Structure formats: structure tokens, C-alpha cells
Amino acid sequence: MLEEYSEDCNLIPVEKLQAAIRRITLTRSAVPVLCGSALKNKGVQPLLDAITLYLPSPDDCTHDFMSWYKDDLCALAFKVVHDRQRGPMVFVRIYSGMMKAQSAVYNVNKNCTERMSRLLLPFADQQVEISSLSPGNIALTVGLKQTATGDTIVSSKASAAAAARRAVRSEEKTKDRKSQDNLVLAGVEIPEPVFFCTIEPPSVAKQFDLENALRCLQLEDPSLKLILCGMGELHIEIIHDRIRREYGLETYLGPLQIAYRETIVCGSRASDTLDRTMGDTRHQVTVELEVRPLSEDIPLIEYSANLPSSVNSYKEAIENGIHGCYLTGPLLGSPLQDVGVIVHEVSVLPGTSMTVVSACVSRCMTKALKMSEKQILEPMMSLEITMGEDHLSRVLADLSQRRGNVGAIQDRLDSKVVLAHVPLAELMGYSTDLRTVTSGTATFTLELSNYEAMNPQEQNSLLRKKGLV
Description:
Layout: H1 2-9, H2 14-26, H3 44-54, H4 64-69, E1 74-83, E2 87-96, E3 99-100, E4 103-107, E5 112-116, E6 118-123, E7 126-130, E8 132-133, E9 138-142, E10 152-154, H5 157-174, H6 177-184, E11 195-196, E12 199-200, H7 207-220, E13 229-230, H8 233-247, E14 252-253, E15 257-258, E16 261-264, E17 268-278, E18 281-293, E19 301-303, H9 315-326, E20 339-348, H10 354-371, E21 374-388, H11 392-401, E22 405-412, E23 415-423, H12 430-437, E24 443-453, H13 456-465
Parallel strand pairs: 19-20
Antiparallel strand pairs: 1-2, 1-10, 2-9, 3-8, 4-5, 4-10, 6-7, 6-9, 11-13, 11-15, 12-14, 16-21, 17-18, 18-20, 21-23, 21-24, 22-23
Helix pairs in contact: 5-6, 9-10
């Protein structure tokens, strides 16, 4: 297009037009727009050329970590795929230094060294083997077994340590603590999963194959957790389908459940004693502790001032027992949130094992939680719906029935955009319902906003539904 325009008008050389577009793109004054159709293979090549011509290379950026690594390798693993013959294949973007085949690299996030056997240049479904690659390029690596999406790859552990020292010196000059953190922990931000379900293999013989498939999928998708937790109904359905297609496993999924949280409204105090004789040894522990609602200025775990110094040798076991309790709340068995603990008394008979101390602390905390006033927290979603004005009233009426809180209604060209805050429990199957209400013309996006307390009526209804009251 630019060549034709330049030749017809005979005014501006195409190189000057491209240089001008690049300048305004780098300053973010304008955004180049290209038309085409991937389905019909039209406009794809100009789009790829435009990426090279107009978008910034690492030399055009002034990120601090590039100066800290200097000429050493620094690359970001942004995608992991699995090949039946080659195993995990990692796509990396190189920001500084040279990446070479048959070399050892250091994964900063996993704190481990791995050996990269091959380096490939991807061209659609074809890969060309190369010996090295320079900054600004994307490569496909073979041999990195532990690397997951979002990990930072550098040349060696010594290189990461040297960069950290330069970051410390820079921090002392600029007083910027965040810069050092960004250096070593570069990656992608993974939101908390909001749905979960159980997944079972078709037989005990296939248990190992299922575990291997899930490990591989977790490297590709860090938002996937076990038991199978994901970002939405479609996310889990896609994972289930991939396990069937790519790994040949006909697995069974349990019912989809929402990832609630639990907290307490007021504090309570409890004590407990655990006395067991195992073999020839008597194990005895007495614990007294208090649970309370947690605010920003209160530490998660506090120790009473009158505790004897001997308790210090049991602190790890005490905190293991407390942290174990945070995983299972007293109402639904969901994780606890915003609950603080004060340890008032710990009395341990000499020779008692650390495992017994942890068990007693966990049992005492469970007792205190059951005595307190409990509250279920439900995930609230930020919902953005784009539709024609004709469907606005029906969409708003539907949101009000879903306990939605509409924050704003905006105009976007000829469309209306509704910004709302809606409980996740009310959005099961929402894509189908929205298509029905708007005759298939509306689109929406969802993002986890926060966790909010359920009102008493909804909480009692949920507990009755689960058969807990």
C-alpha cells in the first residue's frame, strides 16, 4: 500500500513514510492499522512486515534490567507447547545477550539450571534449526523440562547474582525498591482461579498418565492448578478436551464448583491438649490461642509477650499447624482469608515430636474457628458488556436479577458499554443467556475483582444447598 501511494503521488519516498510511522508508533502518538483476513490469507504478510518495521526492538527500550544484565543473556519464556517426540518446547523472547544451542541456562523463577539441547526458528508449523539468536528475536527451545510460562531465563546463576548486585547499587541511588524485584521476577500476572472441579482417570492404570498430562498442561498454563482449578467454565472445558485429544485419556470431570473463601466476623479463644503415647515415648502438648479478624496493620501470627523463650524452638511446628488450618475453613472447607492468630500459651513435654505439636495447634485453631461467628466470601467479577442500544434495557433487567451492581453505562461509537460488579455464582452459563437476550449481538469480558461477604440469606441458602445446615 505504501509503495503504491508513494509511486502514484511521486511525493514522499516510501522509506520516509515508514520511518515516520515508526517514530509516531514508538512515541505512542498513533497506532498503525492494517486490514486483512487470516482465513483467506490476505494481508498476513504486510502485518508481519509491519511488526518488524514499526514495533520497538530491545534497543529502542530503556528497561533497567537490560542495563543490569549488560551483554548477558536475558529472555522471557512466554509460551510452552508439548511435542510427542521432543517433549516440552518453550517459546522465548530474547531481550539481551545471545542465546546459543547446546548451552546451559538458568531459570530465575525456578532457581534451577537446565540444558537447552536445540534452538529452533519457528515459521508457522515449520522449524529451522539454528546455532544462536540475537536480541529482539523469538526462538523455540528444546530441552527445558522445568521452565513454565512467564519464567525468566538468563545465562547462569552467577549472571543473575551479578545483575542483582547492580540492581542493589541502582536502588541505593534511585531509592526504587520495585526495580530490583522486577529484575529477577519478570513474568506474567496470574489471577486466582475462581472455579474448581475434580478430575478422575478412566482407570487406576491410567493414573500416572493423567498426572503427567496435568503436569505438562500446568507448565503451559500457570493459571491451571490441581485439583483442577481454572479461570472459567470454558477454560476447564478446553483443558478437558485437550487431555482427551492430545493425551488420549477419557477422563471424568466432577461438578463445576465456585472457589469461595471463608473468614470470621468476631474473635474467639480456645485451648486444647493432645496427649499420646507412641512406643515408649509420651507426647503431650497444651495450646491456647485466639483467632480474630485480620486488618492491614495486624500481623498474621502473633505470640503473646508472656510466652517462655523455649517456645522459639517450636515456632516452625506451631506455624505449620496454623498454616495447615488456613487451607480448610469451618463452613464449606474453603480456604480462610483475613484471619489472624494470637498464640497465648504453648506447653510441650520434653521429647514430644514436632508433628504432635503441629497437630495440637491445628486442632485448637479449628476449635476456635468453630466457636467464632463465621462468614462466607464470594468472588465478585468485573463485567463489561458491549451491545447495541436496543438491547440495553433487557441486559440491565437481567443484571438486576443476578444481584449485579451497575457502575457505569458508557458510549462507544454506536454501541453501549455496561460496567458492572456481579457475583460469580450468578454468571454460570451467562454467555448463552446474554446471546439469547441480545439476539447474539453482545460481547462481554469478565475479570476477578475481589471477594465480598455474602448476605445472610444467600449464605444460608448456599449452606442448605450443600447440605450443611
